[in-house]
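Ticket #4471: complex job returned nothing on first submit. Input attached below:
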Amino acid sequence: MSQPAIIIRDLVKNFGERRALDGLHLQIQPGEIFSILGPNGGGKSTLFRILSTLLEPDAGSAEILGYHVLEDSAAVRARLGVVFQSPSLDPKLSVEENLRCGGALYGLRGKELRLRIRAAAAALELTERLSDLVEHLSGGLQRRAEIAKCLLTSPEIFILDEPSTGLDPAARLDLWATLEKLRQEKKVTILYTTHLMEEAARADRVAIISAGKLVALGTPAELTSSLRGDVLSLSTASGADQLAKKLSEQYGIPAFVIEGEIRIEHDQAYTLAARIAADFPNTITGLRIASPTLEDVFVARTGSLFGEEKLEPQPLQKK
Amino acid sequence: MKKCTTLLWTPLLALWWRDIIRFLRQRNRIIGALATPLVFWLLVGSGFGPSFYQKGSAATESYLVYFFPGILLLIMLFTAIFSTISVIEDRREGFLQGALVAPLSPVVIPLSKFLGGTTLALLQALFFCLLAPLAGIHLGAVQLLLLLPALLLAGFSMTGLGFLVAWPMDSTQGFHAIMNIFLMPLWMMSGALFPMPEGSGWLYLVGRFNPVSYCVSAIRDALMMGRAATSLTDYYISLLITALFGAATLAMSFYLVAHPKKK
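Support reply: We reran it on our side without changes. The output follows.
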């Protein structure tokens, strides 16, 4: 296998008492579309800021195309296309002026810059909008202009922070088509962070992170099939904890209570559901069986519901 | 492994150009920076005029004339403030992030703001100078020759002050607070609004140690060709102190940008 495009080794970052990254370890292969999925406050943005050379980690290291993000930050910056959550475009300038300015920041100028602007605008179907002021563009077009700006420098790696934030469904589809096209035509590596399951599932591989730690890694299919079968969710009117305990004892299977709901992974969820209904009459108020999603993977690996990440400080381990 | 050098000139020019375009597209900024001092000059100048008396002078200089250099500096201070406030907007809107992840020399961002602010301040001040004859100030070639370096250096210093205040700020509200309790008093205590008293009182000391006093003095000396009744010191010394002041704000800005707060 060729050298990984991004290597993340044991990254640690603390903000005061809070540990945002806790020994994160990852490798991303060239040409891969890779998503970092996690709840808000789970450490995604911290990782993004470290990779984009804006933040120093407290420990560990990150390498991009063999360059260290801290020591060779200029080399990393020259090879990286960074798409921020809030577009880094000047709303008072036209699309073309923004592209010109963006290209100049990477040392491009003159005819070379003009040619690249034309090519990037054509690739993202922005040619007609070049003279429009950015503040007059829709969110989707702004995101496209932002990507066009990054394309000017032909980066080998794109990193995007929550790229679909603020986009309507049509613009989201458009964004994914654009990224897929970029990967096919330019052979770029794409890494993005997201807190949306369906968005994470579009990647070749997904890393789920929670509380700054890697909790699962694999293709979306691998991750969901790592669960034993289907996921059975039960609601009860009286004491979910006691019922979960009884179910565990009676059937010898793990049952989690999350937000008052009992969750059981089982390869024969339908049969189990029927048995439970028969064995515990008048106790079950709701019952749902579904194929596992990335959310179930998250629940199974962390024991907590997605989106319920605790934001209060986690005590640091005293050495 | 191939090392990558950081870039200086192309990005510097691009960011400078952007600041100018951005300014020209925001009419309210032009009006804010020019009209406010103009109104201020006319109202305060006309109101104070009759009661204005300068010690030691034969009262030949009217208050509108006395106030003119101070107003020029106020225009530059306002322009510089509006132009450096864009640092805060850039941070909020995300434009700054794009510049921070580009392979730039660390001096590019502050230097581009200094150049942009100075250019705009200088242009606005020169524009206002067209009104000088109305106040009875004759602007000949010699005055203009003396005035240009004074305005240039004063504009640079005002932008520097603005940048130092704006860079660490998260909100424009915070900037306005600092402007009112720090930047405006600095201007008021510079001999711009009234002659600073002689002797050894606190006001005298504030005036002497206030670098802005030397900006005003250099502009005043240039306009009056050394005949100003309230000149602080020699024109060239004022110019030198203004230049040193500007250089100090630039050095501090470089330091601030190169040593970000670890948040």
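The two ends of chain A are 38 Å apart (CA to CA). Closing as resolved unless it happens again.
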